[in-house]
């Protein structure tokens, strides 16, 4: 069924002139295919599928009764509370991740990178759950899984071994987390992360909330290992709050180092933390993706998986007002994330996978400002959402 | 018609236990009224009408073809571009303000404070337009008009006289703007603002974008004049970016001064500028309201008039995650704005005006996180919006 040929009639790819696009065997093709289903797009804007480059599918509380958040202010409060709540609420990572995926698909996201908790208390339950969801949603949304040591690696013996197992089971990416702030052992954690990546031949994505000089130190350590392991193009630093520090001369030096090492950045553009300046990253040639981070979880009530809304957040946080600037924000939530994740065949060109979203708006900037329900979402040429609703139902 | 008695059956006022509320002659009354229309609220959350405490009704581009923003980065670039664009687009302040009011009412806002441009190029066109809109929407949404010298006061001779005229015509509040940064004459501007307020017996609301020590200086000047003129409770400082400066000891001193002088703060919680910390303002006893600022105008493409979304922005900007913290954000967008504007009969108590919104959500925090279409909006007991749509149509 998903191999049906289609013609998207009267679309404006990336807001350019109206045209027809043709789809066959899940990809865009040059000309019309006999017997193709014709979908009248009414002059709507077409962009490639939105890319959710940083989220936590296993820990959302979507679909559950409201969780009253009374958690303390420190990072460790949130981490410890979450480990406990997973048990007290009996959180099912397969069910919860499926709920978030359905909502995310309805908003036009066709690719997700999800960090998934691995720890000595819950073991690989998260990884197994999200692996099941990835299987269940094959052909609807591509899901990349990062084995993520949320509760620390070196400080909780046994975690490295569990991450090794997770990668053998099918996790795609080696995660990491604040090697100084959380693990108090930057050399230990980063050596372990890069060793796992080398062993499994998989990329790396490290959460780095550490600020100012501390974050810069950890970042330098990641840069040197990326170079030593020849892993340019395969390492992402998520959050990278230290790139938001006030010492912009120090930031400029870090940005040159990241660009030269081929290290990518993922930002969630939080309003209350220092953040990488996306215009500077673009100017420095650093590949940048964006993500929702956790959605309605024990960390906080916000978030909905809408990557057009995230483009707005990137715009608001970076004071992007001009149309070309808003287009940069949207580019980060589409092509930027795709490059960060190394997606094959991403785009609206001939031969690219027919993963795309039909948007309301006269221009790309208006589409971001409006964030109207998505008129149509295709994954590999198959309709997976229409008028803001996914074609699959929420578990 | 708007005098019809109503019973709101099965509501949860402020998320508390389910009850019925009774309305007669536009206000909440203690018991059922014979022949009252019964509205089944299905256990929904009820809050008083949202309060838009800082916006610019006269300058939105809602309803017009997309405006491609190519404006320069400085404040003066935006101000000069806007003055020119008003002419080139033939912007009609009555029509534009009406468009924004209808959209705002659909989101559950029952009170608006709008700054309206007064300058020597466009004279009182903005004031006259928004006065017409206020008249046209009487009974649907209350609109307060600030005579706002967007293009400067002292630096553009004739502006003070125009503001004087605007106040005589019916503007409710005396505006001001960056007495150092824009006017380069803090003494001149602030003396003129307070003289106008004294002459007309009207309150003051001054835009203060000035940062750090400069903003603190202007704030001190506002404090001293507020005390000298006995205007405690009648002065608002909008934006107050200097309260977001890194020198928190200096901020603490300013906050004590504001609280003692009875000066209010309005914030729009922008993600890319330093902002007042709303938890600190609350602790200091400073009345705080929130607003959308400009909506889809020549300054930027964002904004929609949804004050539940603004509560989320206040929450995100101030890192409010716990339920009690999210409730603070919502309180600022309701009771806070109402106190800032000195509204009479605001609330859900017996005798209060029946201005209220029925929300989706198990709790107030969930309502903010969801921002679902508003199920019902009443103004003085009359239905003015249902299921996300205003009962009046958009001009």
UniProtKB/TrEMBL annotation, chains A, B:
<dbReference type="InterPro" id="IPR052349">
    <property type="entry name" value="Metallo-hydrolase_Enzymes"/>
</dbReference>
<keyword id="KW-0378">Hydrolase</keyword>
<feature type="domain" description="Amidohydrolase 3">
    <location>
        <begin position="37"/>
        <end position="384"/>
    </location>
</feature>
<protein>
    <submittedName>
        <fullName>Cytosine/adenosine deaminase-related metal-dependent hydrolase</fullName>
    </submittedName>
</protein>
<dbReference type="InterPro" id="IPR032466">
    <property type="entry name" value="Metal_Hydrolase"/>
</dbReference>
<dbReference type="Pfam" id="PF07969">
    <property type="entry name" value="Amidohydro_3"/>
</dbReference>
<dbReference type="InterPro" id="IPR011059">
    <property type="entry name" value="Metal-dep_hydrolase_composite"/>
</dbReference>
<dbReference type="GO" id="GO:0016814">
    <property type="term" value="F:hydrolase activity, acting on carbon-nitrogen (but not peptide) bonds, in cyclic amidines"/>
</dbReference>
<dbReference type="InterPro" id="IPR013108">
    <property type="entry name" value="Amidohydro_3"/>
</dbReference>
């Amino acid at each position: 069924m998903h191999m049906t040929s289609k013609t998207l009639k009267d679309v404006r790819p990336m807001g350019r002139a109206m045209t027809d696009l043709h789809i066959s065997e899940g990809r865009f093709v040059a000309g019309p295919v006999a017997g193709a289903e014709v979908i009248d797009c009414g002059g709507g804007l077409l962009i490639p599928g939105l890319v959710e480059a940083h989220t936590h599918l296993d820990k959302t509380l979507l679909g559950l009764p409201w969780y009253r958040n009374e958690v303390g202010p420190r990072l460790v409060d949130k981490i410890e509370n979450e480990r406990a709540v997973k048990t007290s609420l009996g959180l099912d990572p397969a069910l919860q991740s499926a709920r978030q995926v359905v909502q995310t698909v309805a908003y036009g996201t066709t690719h997700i990178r999800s960090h998934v908790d691995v720890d000595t208390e819950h073991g690989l339950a998260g990884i197994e759950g999200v692996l099941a969801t990835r299987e269940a949603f094959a052909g609807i949304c591509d899901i990349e899984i990062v084995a993520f040591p949320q509760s620390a690696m070196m400080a909780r013996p046994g975690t490295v071994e569990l991450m090794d197992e997770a990668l053998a089971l099918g996790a795609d990416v080696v995660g990491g987390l604040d090697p100084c702030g959380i693990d108090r052992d930057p050399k230990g954690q980063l050596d372990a992360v890069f060793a796992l990546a080398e062993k499994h031949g998989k990329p790396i994505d490290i959460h780095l909330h550490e600020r100012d000089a501390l974050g810069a130190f950890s970042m330098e350590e990641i840069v040197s290992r990326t170079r030593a392991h020849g892993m340019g193009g395969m390492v992402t630093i998520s959050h990278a709050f230290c790139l938001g520090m006030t010492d912009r001369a120090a930031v400029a030096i870090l940005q040159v180092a990241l660009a030269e090492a081929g290290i990518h950045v993922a930002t969630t553009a939080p309003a209350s933390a220092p953040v990488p300046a996306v215009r500077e990253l673009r100017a420095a040639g650093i590949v940048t993706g964006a993500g929702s981070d956790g959605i309605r979880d024990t960390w906080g009530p916000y978030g909905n998986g809408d990557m057009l809304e995230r483009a707005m957040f990137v715009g608001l946080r970076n004071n992007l007002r001009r149309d070309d600037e808003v287009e940069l924000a949207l580019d980060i939530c589409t092509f930027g994330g795709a490059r960060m994740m190394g997606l094959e065949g991403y785009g609206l060109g001939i031969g690219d996978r027919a993963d795309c979203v039909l948007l309301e708006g006269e221009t790309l900037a208006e589409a971001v400002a409006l964030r109207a329900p998505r008129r149509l979402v295709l994954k590999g040429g198959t309709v997976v959402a229409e008028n803001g609703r996914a074609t699959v139902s929420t578990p």
